[in-house]
Specification:
371 residues, alpha/beta, Rossmann fold, Dihydrodipicolinate Reductase, domain 2, 2 domains, 9-stranded mixed sheet, 6-stranded parallel sheet, 11 helices
Length: 371
Amino acid sequence: MKSYLLHIWIILIFLTFYTSLRGQQPKTGPVRVVVAGTSHGHSGWILSKAIRPEMEIVGIYEPDKQLAAKNAAKYQLPASLFYTDLVKALEATKPEAVLAFGSIKEHLEVVQAAAPRGIHIMVEKPLGANLEDALLMQTLAAKYHVLLLTNFETSWYPSTYETFHLIRDSNYVGQIRKVVFHHGHQGPREIGVPDEFFNWLTDPVKNGGGALVDFGCYGANLITYLMKGQMPLSVTAVTNQFKPKIYPLVEDDATIILNYLGTQAILEASWNWTFSRKDMEVYGDSAYIIAVNANKMRLRNKESQPEYEKMVTAREVHVYTDPFSYFHAVLRGKEKLEPFGLYTIENNIIVNKILEAAKISARTGKTVVIQ
């Protein structure tokens, strides 16, 4: 009898231990997501394929019924997916994550609804429409132990990661002295963004500003990674309103100078480029790297005369070429967040701090010294 009870006791311990181990294993399969807002021009990235290997849309929050109907027809989505109340959408579908594709100001509302429910969040760049919102979002994410990631298109560029590799792992350029970022396009109206996107993108509250915020955030994100999370010593910004009839409420051009100890970064953000561009130039004391676009690079060092061109693809560097694959990999334990990585909350709080200092500098005409 004692032997029998001992065997039962051992089996119960084993089952308890096994169950515990299974509970610690990461989830598998696609991430169940709710899309929060569809007015962002990039919402088509996820709506165009509601079920994919890494993401499955289980609900779409869109308070504008006309826009909801438009997207339902465009992407052949059932009306049953759509909700006009975010909380009801989250409660009804119990998603693992939420993807924010509304105005930048609405990011805070999404985090306020999702974080207390233990739902992870990815927002479009930048993190917040202002620094106050960004800090509140950071506090909520930390309090409820949820991921809060920010998506930048340049985060998926093979040339971005090859540049980082050459600088940080191969010391290709030596000491970084100057980094110049060119981001932007001809202007939201000029490239034909839809009205639901244009209306908040050119609103100083809903977007947090104009070109300074819309495209200044890219360079701030990239330089923060390159500088390993350092804040600049000072921020100087000059903004222009070259097209006040089209953009009466916000700036359409901005130049931001960030000074670090031994390094300077120049962020050129504009809705006045003659063509769309997202490129960066990194100059060191022994070489330079110019990432022309997602795949094309130009390089030159003391040993290579003259400059040479290099093409890189996702097969050659470790990069996820869309944000949803990356988000899935993080949630499934396949990827770890790198300190001050491009998607991280730590990096993107600094981005908002830089943008806030740039707004103050442009408004006052003075350099903002970071304490």
